[in-house]
Amino acid sequence: MKEKILAATREHAKTLADFQKRLGRYSGSQIQSGSLLADAQGVASTWFDSVKAPLESSEIRPDLIADATAAFDKILRLSKIKPRKGTLLAELSGAIKVYKEIIHSVETASIDSSQALSITPFIEGLQGDETAYLDEAQRCLTVDGLRACVVLGWCAAISRVHRKIEAIGFDRFSEATREMHAKTTGRFKPFRKQFTIESRSELQTVFDTDLLWVLEYLELIDNNQHQRLRHCFELRNNSAHPGLAPIKGPNLYSFYSDISEIILKNEKFALDTT
Questions:
Q1: Phi first, then psi: what are they for 84, rounded to 5°?
Q2: pLDDT digits (tens, 9 = 90+) for 216-241
Q3: DSSP of 98-150, one letter per residue?
Q4: Rounded to whole angstroms, how far apart are CA atoms 172 and 236?
Q5: In Å, what is the CA distance from 271 to each residue of 55, 129, 163, 243?
Q6: Average per-residue pLDDT in the chain?
Q7: Do 142 and 98 fall into the same domain?
Q8: Could you give the CA distance from residue 182 to residue 178 in angstroms, rounded to a whole number?
Q9: How many domains does the chain fold into?
Q10: Is residue 115 part of a domain?
Q11: What pTM was estimated for this model as a whole?
Q12: For residue 49, what are the domain limits?
């Protein structure tokens, strides 16, 4: 496991340094190049998709991981606009600096190479109906059932979403879809569906991708969280259908980190159990 973490962090650090050099050669003061912005998004997304979760499951100092996460979050946000070259270079320098500390920590850490996969850090402390799905998901890992673990994790997340919508009120959910359908400008213009939901059974017929749009409209999640959950949903689909794309530990940890932080442990999705 240590060798895999080292390989992933070193490769990502090299990609980050190479991108910094490319950006340094850019002549303008404001980044107008679409390819540079796409590469900025790519190096930031790699941290969240492939590197962060394995580090979190090891003995690496949490403050270093938090510092790197903050830096890559800023880079990801800057990649979606046309930032000043100096601003983006400064964020890259900060990420590279903390990365050197992370790699040194991995090199000197004692990481059990036979450590089994576990989603416990992402689900500990959770209560409610979703724990049945999550307990079963953890048991899947004892037989290397990563695909099943992902599918059950998504079941838990959508279960919490359904219960939150029920708490808000099916009428409010239905009204939100009508308001979105009526939009002729702005972000929600592409949403062309309307629902009249009166029970949880009827809510179960709404596609998960449509649920994510309504959650954003109701301000339970923002645009970035919407996109991250959409990525989780795609991983769930990859896990549930035949294909050549492998599901490995980093994919699993990234998935559970997102559904935990964005839904299961998010105060906006908390339920009144009194």
A1: -70, 140
A2: 999 999 999 999 999 999 999 999 99
A3: HHHHHHHHHHHS---TTPPP--HHHHTT--STHHHHHHHHHHHGGGT-HHHHH
A4: 28
A5: 31, 11, 8, 37
A6: 91
A7: no
A8: 6
A9: 2
A10: no
A11: 0.60
A12: 2-108
